[in-house]
Amino acid sequence: MRGQGCTGHRASGDSALANACMKEASVTIRLGDIAPNFTAPTTEGNIDFHEWKKGKWAVLFSHPKDFTPVCTTELGYTAKLASEFEKRNVKVAGLSVDSVDDHKKWAKDIEETQGSRVNFPMIGDPDKKVANLYDMIHPNANDTLTVRSLFVIDPNNKVRLIITYPASTGRNFDEILRVIDSLQLTDGYKVATPVNWKHGDDVIIVPSVSNEDAKKLFPNGWEEKKPYLRLVKQPGR
Ligand code: BEZ
């Protein structure tokens, strides 16, 4: 249906297409939504997504095509970050609309050229079931391949980050780790992270925490630049 284009139904008066498009629109995933569950074949066997990530954070990311250059570098680098993801209690899964057999063949190229063995499941999605469920195909960019979508999903299966990059731009996976650090700090300590924050920099007490409560949470005090801008050393270091 996406291949027929969901933008033209008003002009064309095609009500079947309009209905299908409305149905698709209803599955738009937004921050705070529960990440839809699915079962799928992967290079590490079949998975039930929620079962597979149970109790953990997850990064679910799509790449447009196996045996392509940018994707090769992305998957190689992500594999190199395994210990960083592990430290943060995060599981990683990649996806494209290629088959698991192709993923397995391509993984050899990734190891050869990037120097890292792919150590996370690569989901095979040739029927586009998961790609459509997560709205990873943007027909006006490419109506058959996924764009570079990425979802960070928390242990309660809530979607906490969504990014969408074009096929020609490799993502910055260090930035994904940085966002996960920020999300985990917010959950653990009621702090937010300022512009260009990096691990170890001061953080911001979230506005919903009163000064009275902040005294209990941050007994060593904070720097109050404005009543709404209270800086504190990064907790939990
Ligand atoms: C790549 O991974 O290099 C790529 C994939 C699809 C389109 C453009 C680039």
Description:
This protein is of the alpha+beta class. It folds into 2 domains: 2-6 and 28-171, Glutaredoxin (3-Layer(aba) Sandwich); 190-232, Antioxidant, Horf6, Chain A, domain2 (Antioxidant, Horf6, Chain A, domain 2), CATH 3.30.1020. It contains 9 helices and 11 strands. It has helices at residues 9-12, 15-25, 49-52, 69-80, 82-87, 100-114, 129-133, 173-189, 211-217; strands spanning 39-40, 47-48, 57-62, 90-96, 122-124, 148-153, 159-165, 191-192, 203-205, 223-226, 229-232. It has a 5-stranded mixed sheet. Helix 4 (69-80) packs across helix 6. It binds benzoic acid. The site of benzoic acid has 8 residues, from helix 4.
CATH topology of the largest domain: Glutaredoxin
How many distinct folded domains?
Answer: 2
Unreliable residue runs:
1-19, 21-26
Order of strands, main sheet, comes to 5-4-3-6-7
Radius of gyration: 20 Å
Oligomer: single chain
- The computed structural class is alpha+beta
Beta-strand residue fraction: 15-25%
CATH architecture descriptor text of the largest domain: 3-Layer(aba) Sandwich
Distinct small molecules bound, one entry per kind:
benzoic acid
- The strand count comes to 11
Largest sheet: 5 strands, mixed
Helix content: 25-40%
Mean pLDDT across the residues is 91
Shape: elongated
Q: What is the N-to-C succession of helices and strands?
A: HHEEHEHHEHEHEEHEEHEE
